[in-house]
Amino acid sequence: MIDESKPVETSQNPNPEDLLNQAENPASVSAQEPETPSPEVDNGAEPAQVQEDSASEGIDPSSETSSETTDPAAHQADVAQAALLAEVLASKELELDSIKQSYEEVKAQYQRLGADFDNFRKRTQKEKGELEDQTKCKTLQELLPVVDNFERARSQIKPQNDGEMTIHKSYQSVYKQLVDCLKRIGVSPMRAEGKEFDPNLHEAVMREATSEYAEGTVTEELMRGYLLNDRVLRHAMVKVAAAPEDEPEPPVEEATEPTNEPEAEESES
Length: 269
Prior knowledge:
By secondary structure, this protein is mainly alpha-helical. The chain has a domain at 188-244: Nucleotide Exchange Factor Grpe, Chain A, domain 2. It contains six helices and six strands, in the order H-H-H-H-H-E-E-E-E-E-E-H. The protein has helices at residues 16-24, 26-32, 47-56, 63-156, 162-185, 261-268; strands spanning 187-189, 202-209, 218-223, 226-228, 231-234, 236-242. The strands form two sheets. The chain has a three-stranded antiparallel beta sheet with strand order 1-4-5. A three-stranded mixed beta sheet has the order 2-6-3, with no helix packed on it. It is rod-shaped. The termini are far apart.
């Protein structure tokens, strides 16, 4: 700092002759100029006061040195932070890929389970329906002989008086109720006579050679068959037409030529 206690010497009014000499000899003027004393810094001044003076001049005493020393470190820190962020990003991408793969696996398992459950549901429904049909078939197969007996009685018994007619009508009404009940369940009789023999529906117990029907045609229904919806409840026992046999023609006698046996014997002798 400048010592303000010393009196500052004021310059006196210049002499015209001196000014003339200065103009003629400028080198001498520069040699004769007194040096301006540099401001002395009080070493005993407080640091806070020095910082205030520097701040008043707009200069940060630590800015230049700190910027020179901290720029490389900050650059290294930025590089390290960028590398760390890249590593974290890569790990997150790997984790995301793993989650996507797990999701696809779980999704595929869910779809397989859904398909398996759907197939299981369909299979159980089918098995349930088949079991119901089997139970129904067994029950109805036990009732069909009763229906056969009613039909035989109707075709063979001929009522002779009013009492027999009353009895005939009474059991025929029972037969009609039984047939109606079977129809509601889904039982229907087959009509095999005059149709082509079908091994899936008919059971051939006899063959009859005839020219009235084509070969392989059902000529007579011996026992009626029944269907439960589209399923065969009982095969129909039928007689099937066969091709008529041709009558054998009488054998034709062949003419024999006479042989001269004595001459043959003489020639041999």
